[in-house]
Design goal:
The protein is an alpha+beta fold. Helices cover 53% and strands 16% of the residues. Helix 2 packs parallel to helix 4 (79-92), helix 5 (94-114) packs antiparallel against helix 6 (117-129) and helix 7 (240-274) runs parallel beside helix 9. Bound molecules: 3-thiaglutaryl-CoA (TGC) and flavin-adenine dinucleotide. Flavin-adenine dinucleotide is lined by residues 102, 136-139, 144-145, 169-171, 212, 217, 365, 368-369, 372, 374-375, 390.
Length: 391
Amino acid sequence: MTSPSLHPFDLFGIDTLLNDEERDIRDTVRAMSDRDLRPHVADWFERGSIPARELAAQLGELGVLGMHLQGYGCAGTSAVAYGLACLELEAVDSGLRSLVSVQGSLAMYAIWKYGSREQKERWLPGMAAGRFIGCFGLTEPDAGSDPGAMRTHARRDGGDWVLNGTKMWITNGSVADIAVVWARTDDGVRGFLVPAGTPGFTAHDIRHKVSLRASVTSELVLEDVRLPADAVLPGARGLSGPLGCLNEARFGIVFGAVGAARDCLETALAYAADRTVFDRPLAGFQLTQQKLADMTLELGKGMLLALQLGRLKDAGRITPERISLGKLNNVREALEIARQCRTLLGANGITLEYPVIRHANNLESVLTYEGTSEVHTLVIGRSVTGVPAFR
Ligand code: TGC
Ligand code: FAD
């Protein structure tokens, strides 16, 4: 005897927590994703390349690039609406959400928050439309979790700035029109706008990735890159400049990871209903239901946490520590869900015919970037003990 099945989110009544506008934005992003992205993504992942320009233009037209920012061609939506867009994009692939995160929450946000009026007018409308692609260079080969150890430096030479250094693992790096590069100066860490094509500035793609393959990841090399005085972001001084941008991107990941997990669980639920083992549907075995029930719980809890953080952000009450709660929990649990779903798919779980192993591999990167799980654990640890344990 079977009864109708319920979507895990319906079990939690998630839709009742969203308003009409939020549901509309979610449905619009989901429809575009299903139509224009999902049919191609396994192929992009397998080939290890994406049509970045075309995608940026499509995502710009959809209105998701910098959608939570006000003015300069940006939509000015709520944080929750932005989170839901990230969720739907990451339900397709973390690499696509990454493109949107880096563009809107890192590169555009840095300019929007710390830039001069001229810098904003020059770059933001084109970036919102997807005509210009941006990247964000903070990490270096020897400075990832500890960006304060960066070696890239900028020195004054007359009215100019001269930059030297290397940035590593930079999403969108080789396809970017504009790089936001963080460098140490006599005045602490500052941010610089480096247009592609500036003499001495080169970007090389990192190859042989087995994660985030539907995403461009590059090394940026700066060799005596000469920039005019107005290339510096006037509003950012010290490490709080780049770290302030990370809060924005981490927030998107809190929702995005739920999307990847949802896609895995939906796939596993459908597979378990169809697959016959020992003369019965896989879904009818208690061991299977234990896995599905546990994953349903973690998925729903992750979504509730994301929504709570979104409501706090919209109320102006989000803090970096709160974002760490969401980034740590939701990425960790999404990865666990992806791995568990992979087991339910058996051998089929290792192919790109199903999205599950692609999500699992991607989530390994998501666990590491934007603050590793250890870094977020230490942020939470510092918050509840008052004792920093980073060094
Ligand atoms: P600490 O001494 O704690 O702080 C230095 C200054 O920064 C301020 N601060 C923050 N400000 C805003 N938001 C935050 N989340 C902040 N965290 C710290 C702090 O108040 C202080 O300001 P001031 O004015 O007193 O100088 O810094 P620390 O050196 O001890 O490091 C703390 C730590 C480890 C938490 C931080 O360095 C960190 O978050 N490390 C992780 C680095 C990271 O996440 N990198 C990500 C690179 S971008 C990326 O991965 C893109 S992936 C593509 C995609 O998003 O899809
Ligand atoms: P490390 O900092 O060397 O860490 C190695 C290990 O040590 C980790 O497990 C870490 O948690 C642990 N560890 C470090 N410190 C401590 C400690 N105090 N206590 C205990 N354990 C510790 N960066 C950008 O700037 N821009 C981008 O666009 C960007 N895109 C990326 C895209 C991809 C696909 C990837 C994989 C990375 C990207 N990154 C980007 C870089 C990313 O932010 C870094 O990889 C990340 O911050 C970790 O730095 P790391 O790799 O140098 O590791």
